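From the shared-data thread, chain only:
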Amino acid sequence: MKTDFSTEHLQLFGLTPDNIPVYSYTLKNKMGMEAEIITFGATLKSLKFPVKEKLIDVVLGYDTLDSYIKSYNLPSAPYFGTTVGRYSGRISKGVFNLNDKTFRLNQNNNGNTLHGGGVGFGEKIWKVENITTDENPSITLSLLSEHLEENFPGELKVNLTYTLTEGNELKLEYNATTTEDTVINLTHHSYFNLDGHDSDVLNQGMFVNSDTILETAADGIPTGKFTSLNDNAFDFRTSKNCPSVIDTSFVIESKNAVAAKLISQKNNLEMSVFTDQPSVHVYVGGNCFNILKGKENTDYHSLSGICFETQNFPDAPNQKHFPNSVLKKGEEYHQKTIYKFENIITEF
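Structure, as tokens:
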């Protein structure tokens, strides 16, 4: 395994309005799979898998840095392929209490805080810390989030390593430390489409290894209750077609089993999701409102892709019976998610 800290293997992807360079790097395994990552938002720009002697791009994205930047001004930012933080999902009214102190976050979603607030980790320029080549190539990126950025306490240091294994797995490993007690919930926000990024997901199958979902109010904030999936339209314990509308947190009990799957009969391709997190938030979308073009001049719409956001529960800082979301000073946050790709024929 070769390690390279230089920038000679990085490609310039563009310059921000402040003339800050954004770089891209492509991981390639020996099976022909490719993953391109850009330093803007530690974003997965493309993920290509060999199908019928050609590479199929199975994630949504843009061809230019300008489009990624402008996407955050759309009526609903899509967060294509980004790393979401400091807290993914919604926090009710943008308020939480920690150590007998109230923190009031920047609100950016109907009076609540979504995906970290006004400017989250997806709009930050990450630093390349390490690149490894040969077998199981990887890239490690880091971000320093200042104390009280978006009004979150503590200076937070985050590392994210993308690894493309020889088993056709895209592995994401997050680590973080803080100078003060804080809350944290990081996730990956790619929109997957195994028929190709220029298609829709309705003919693809979905499986989710979950017995319950989080009950939510009309604004998407969890009520604190759980809904059984018995006799429920969102019961995907048996694979069936992707729904046209979903924005739901599925509770994942087993940390060793497959959490979710996406299946394309068209391309004989299956993606399995593994995670150590307590939930997978599933969301179908990708709409760019005919304002921005996607990769290869594609018009993305509300059925263009599906997200499998592996994470803690939304609003966990305000729900004592939800899994712990507090990272204490002196401790380390760790999150691991794997997206595994296989050629397989599965009926659903």
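Residues 65-71 form the longest helix (7 residues).
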